[in-house]
């Protein structure tokens, strides 16, 4: 069976964009591969989050993961920092990564522009830590979005250099998991093309939003002044509402509003009401589960502990073998 590894940084609650962009595929993948899904808390330290906030975010991401349908009996779900073996491999992989290539990495260049007051070494070596996450389980595949493709290429480069220098084929060279057309990029409610919490909270629907909040957000979504001629091209904001409808509503509902739009008879208020209903319906079982899990701290810590134990088995084995290859054997 193939091994799949992926991580998500605990920066807040997960939203519908995360769900359709990745989570839904993870839920399928857990039935088909040996999956390791972890919460990348070490990675989120580059921006120095408050410790209480970090802790809460880790817990919330775990809750969202489980509520959405990740199954700890099928996949190994763990918190990255519960697996300190990763950091030893990170140190070792640092010897196979060159400062020049790290500095040329697109995400690094973007981050130093954005946070010029905090260009720490953790930011520079972020791709090395990510490579360690993947190589610690000697993964075959990594499901990542476009923005992470370069990091994955770097992981392959580090692994290949290691293999070359030690004349081994120890590390597999991990490749991107091919989602085909499974992934749907959801737009925001604010007219933007991507649902993202970095823009503003009102533009995304969190899995943990209570129904009345989801409804408020949808009712406030950006629209335009309406079509003035039949079959008029849609503005981005309206296109977005239709795209959201496409994933949560029945095909008939979508067709109905398409026809209304094309005939210039659409009432955006009605459309939003329907969209809000359908979003609430869609997220209801997840939301219900989130509320239940919030009251089950013991269950959550058991899941995290069991995940860490399973991850450790695989990590300890890798690290032992890597140490031996390098010559770090006990005397
Ligand atoms: N860098 C990824 C992100 O920001 C998170 C991540 C960390 C990751 N380690 C990983 C993703 C390993 C895939 C595999 O989204």
Explained architecture:
The protein has 331 residues and is mainly α. The protein has two domains: 206 residues, 3-Layer(aba) Sandwich (Rossmann fold); 91 residues, Tyrosyl-Transfer RNA Synthetase, CATH 1.10.240. Helices cover 54% and strands 6% of the residues. The strands form two sheets. A three-stranded parallel beta sheet has the order 1-2-3. Strands 4-5 form a two-stranded parallel ribbon. Helix 2 links the parallel strand 2 and strand 3. Helix 3 packs across helix 7 and helix 7 crosses helix 8. The longest helix is centred in the last third of the chain and has 30 residues. Bound molecules: tryptophan. The site of tryptophan has 13 residues, from strand 1 and helix 7. The site of tryptophan (TRP) has 13 residues, from strand 1 and helix 7.
Q: What is the typical, i.e. mean, pLDDT?
A: 96
Rounded to an integer in angstroms, the radius of gyration calculated over CA atoms is 22 Å
So what's the overall shape? Answer: elongated
In DSSP terms (H or I, runs of 4 or more residues), the helix count works out at 13
Distance between the termini: 36 Å
Order of helices and strands: EHEHEHHHHHEHEHHHHH
Helix content: 40-55%
CATH topology of the largest domain: Rossmann fold
In the CATH hierarchy, what is the class of the largest domain?
A: Alpha Beta
Q: Outline the biggest β-sheet.
A: 3 strands, parallel
Bound molecules: tryptophan
* Percentage of residues in DSSP E strands: 5-15%
Derived from helix and strand composition plus strand pairing, the structural class reads mainly alpha
- What's the total number of strands? 5
| CATH-level-2 architecture of the largest domain | 3-Layer(aba) Sandwich
CATH homologous superfamily classification of the largest domain? HUPs
For the record, the count of structural domains works out to 2
Q: What low-confidence regions span 5 or more consecutive residues with pLDDT below 50?
A: none
Q: Going across the major beta sheet, what is the strand order?
A: 1-2-3
